[in-house]
Automatic annotation (TrEMBL):
Cofactors (names): Co(2+)
Any GO BP: L-arginine biosynthetic process
Name recorded for this polypeptide: N-acetyl-L-citrulline deacetylase
Reaction(s) catalysed (UniProt annotation): N(2)-acetyl-L-citrulline + H2O = L-citrulline + acetate
Keywords (A to Z) from UniProt: Amino-acid biosynthesis, Arginine biosynthesis, Cobalt, Hydrolase, Metal-binding
Family the UniProt entry places it in: Belongs to the peptidase M20A family. N-acetylcitrulline deacetylase subfamily.
Function (record text): Catalyzes the deacetylation of N-acetyl-L-citrulline to produce L-citrulline. This is a step in an alternative arginine biosynthesis pathway.
Amino acid sequence: MSALLDATLDHLRALVGFDTRNPPRAIDTGGIFDYLRAQLPGFAVTVTDFGAGAVSLHAVRGTPRYLFNVHLDTVPDSPAWTADPHTLRVTDKHAIGLGACDIKGAAAALLAVANASDGDMALLFSTDEEANDPRCIAGFLRAFPPPPSGEGCYQAVIVAEPTKGEVVLAHRGIQSVLMRFTGHAGHASGEQKAGDSALHQVVRWGDAALDFVVAQSHERFGGLTGLRFNIGRIEGGIKANMIAPTAEVRFGMRPLPTMHPDTLLKQLRALAEPEPAHYEETFRGPSLPAGDTARAEERRLAARDIADELELPVGNAVDFWTEAALFSAAGHLAFVYGPGDIAQAHSADEWVELDQLQRYAESIQRIVDRGLA
């Protein structure tokens, strides 16, 4: 193993040892942030507590052009883990531990590079990515909005997520929705009108919604096709011989950058007959790149130019969501680049390949040493 990989694994062993599960997100400005401060001599460091375990650290050395962002929170571990999830295990090919893939491996590599090089560098660590509660990024964007001229701000934000060491220029947005239906309780032996059973309303809406999604299959952007849609939960009713007076459905969708979320919400709501008693969007994450069709493509190509300048391999667009979209929506150029495979993220005995960790760390060091960062 190279000295850079050795240092990365040392940092990863320490980072995995900190419990940053989200939930419960029992994180404060000490603990893992004390460790980060100690590893960043020569950096101007600002730690901000946004409450409820959402803490960020912004570290700057010199006058860098690019900001490297990585989240430190992890999903909870499951009973399927075969060993202590907070103790890093290293084999001849893998580093295994909670968050090793998603995405403390990248954080460890960035720390290793920060100590192996004295070049200009900017880092942003956060702790609230895994719970649809982006306080850290929202707070950073309030403090560092991109000015209209583009002068004095970062030229681009490079967000670390598991992309197999390839740059991702585009991904879907995400929306989560809660719908509630009301009907009329009664005996199920009689003939029912269309609106009597709340559960029947949900089923009819679901059937229409699935047909609507199929009709979007021709839509395309950057290698992505169609609308991703999932009915995740249906609740309601009392028993088989009673008409259901209430029902609730939660669904999610992942639109292309060229799809308009508000239009989709309106169209899906209109499929319900009668109209649902309650219709609430519980989370929205924009697509990457953000903007209308022309603007999104312009930003995608601009981000590709930067990736080419940095000599980073460009991969395909992905279906999963990242916080790069939040930077893009605020006006920053942004793309996603990190070690690890999304198939390992959130899994028991989560791992990241040592080869990918090393290649990622070496690419960041090359960027910093050449003064490109």
